[in-house]
Amino acid sequence: MTDIAPAISPPIGIGDAKSTNQSVLDWVQEVARLCGPENIFWCDGSEKENEYLRGEAVRQNILIKLNEEKVPGSYLHRSNPNDVARVEQFTLICTPTKEEAGPTNNWAAPDETYTKLHRMLKGAMRGRTMFVIPYIMGPPDSPLTKVGFEITDSIYVVLSMRIMTRMGVVATKRLGNDASAEWNRGVHSLLDVNPERRWICHFPQDNTIISVGSGYGGNVLLSKKCLALRIGSYLARKQGWLAEHMLILGVQSPEGRKHYVAAAFPSACGKTNFAMLIPPKHFKGWKVTTIGDDIAWMQIGGDGRLYAVNPENGYFGVVPGTSYKSNPNAMKSIEHDTLYTNVAMTNDGDVWWEGKDGPPPTHAIDWKGNDWTPDSKEKAAHPNSRFATPMRNNPVLDPDVEKGDGVPISAIIFGGRRSDTMPLVFQAFDWEHGVYVGAMMASETTAAATGAVGQVRRDPMAMLPFCGYNMGEYFRHWLRTGARLKNPPLIFHVNWFRKSADGKFLWPGFGDNMRVLKWIIDRAEGRGGAQKSPIGFLPRREGLDLDELENVSNAAIEELLAVQPNEWKKELANQESLFEKLGGDMPEELIAQRAKLAQRLG
Ligand code: GTP
Ligand code: SPV
Ligand code: MN
Questions:
Q1: Residue 508 burial (CB < 10 Å; 0-12/13-18/19+)?
Q2: Which ligand is nearest to the CA of 218?
Q3: Ligand 1 atom showing the smallest separation from residue 268 Cα
Q4: Distance (Å, whole) CA 213 – CA 220
Q5: For residue 15, is pLDDT > 90?
Q6: Ligand 1 atom 26: residue of nearest CA
Q7: Which residues are identified as catalytic?
Q8: Short-list 296, 311, 305, CA closest to 242
Q9: Residue 63 contacts by C-beta under 8 Å, 6 or more apart in sequence?
Q10: Cα separation of 375 and 369, whole Å?
């Protein structure tokens, strides 16, 4: 299987939806002159175009059509084994000064970087088709919505962007013919899919992204991490809103009261699962609905509350571990019309992965295209294998997902993957303390990015790899936003991943996370008791609805709700690394918050 393919020659009526906006035309011409493609394909996002491109992708061995009975309308792509996750070390923020990118980002000078990239892109699309993808991020009628154009030489990227964004005519319409309108320029080329020539570069001041040398996920679907988060966060600060790595879910009580919450967990730490949660039987009448599973754009409404939209149109989710037991709604979502990357394929053209329901197949083709049996030492699916599926497939999609003004947020939740220290849940004392709690988030690294897995690192607000400017400024933007909110959401911290001394998860997680969500909603409604601890408000044991919770001992619950002073002193000391890194960029307020925590811990 391959990523790179020779040029295609579409029939008349396909690939000719040329833009009428002069600034787009000029830019496309400029990129074409540089990259030298065989031809230009202007995408319109139609079903006819989609069908044609899928056919071409199969013919060119970029996709495999899966069994139409088992997974209708679905395809499999295997990326280059050297190219299976985001590459944070090759992700650059190219602001005019290093100071603007800040100490947590890889900075490079814009001029030099453009020169370097242009050298790599010169003639890079020779013999290939250059696709132009118009897309919007956000509901069509939202004031938050942004227009982007992505140029790519990968059909896989086009087909993925069609799922992940609202693509085609809707975007050209939104942009109109005003040559001075704001829109994002994204250029992507596979080059030769060589890790030594792989760069994901952002030029926030030019609203421009250039990505070379990869064909995978967040490196190349430029709408997602590149525009919606890195460029998005930069624009958000300038324009007074928030662009966050957060899921958004709705939760409705049996009495019909509805709340929305947004939650920031780092990559592969449970956003998609939480966003589609099915409450346990005991929570009869409660319902969770999904607005988004990865990114939230939020603005302050006329009533002084925070309102969120999901800028995306689909889910690019972690496959391994997804089952009818852990996440039935995700399973239903990916049963059809789904583009799979790096999962295993069974003899009858079905998909398989570690953690799927039922016994493993006796034989399969693994994610690299090799024979696999249950005796194989290697995994059948890559740990970061993914599905791209339209959000419309989600049986619990929230009816207000298209609402342009967004949904009001009652609570913000931060959470990481922590084997120790962090209790199941606690509530911050107020907004400023909540910003400190979010800023100090830490989590064990996962397969979503290349590099070591399982190492605890500071990941402020789950934005370490996604903040497009100085992290200290980002914290200030959060503090200022709080000051502008008349009715700020309450802020919480959760940890589904605390482990016992023998290395087992103490908390069952998934659907049972509803028990924690319920306490959060109780708090947001001004009910629900809590006890004050040095780190924040914790639920009393009886304040958590643990009825019918099976296989969790009282001792485990105690451990989950424990605040261990020795662990917290270590935590406080470990925070030093981030304070040192940010130096003078760290806001005074957060320095003071840390001092107060130290005092409370005694
Ligand atoms: P990105 O798409 O990378 O941003 O990831 P995400 O934050 O959406 O994470 P996702 O929901 O896909 O979950 C990632 C992994 O964590 C999967 O292997 C899940 O099975 C696992 N996971 C999710 N929720 C829980 C939970 O409550 N408890 C435990 N133990 N594991 C969980
Ligand atoms: C993440 O890593 O947070 C993802 C997957 O959501 S990717 O789109 O590859 O960034
Ligand atoms: Mn993510």
A1: middle
A2: 2
A3: 5
A4: 9
A5: yes
A6: 509
A7: 269
A8: 296
A9: 54, 57, 75, 76, 77, 156, 159, 339
A10: 16
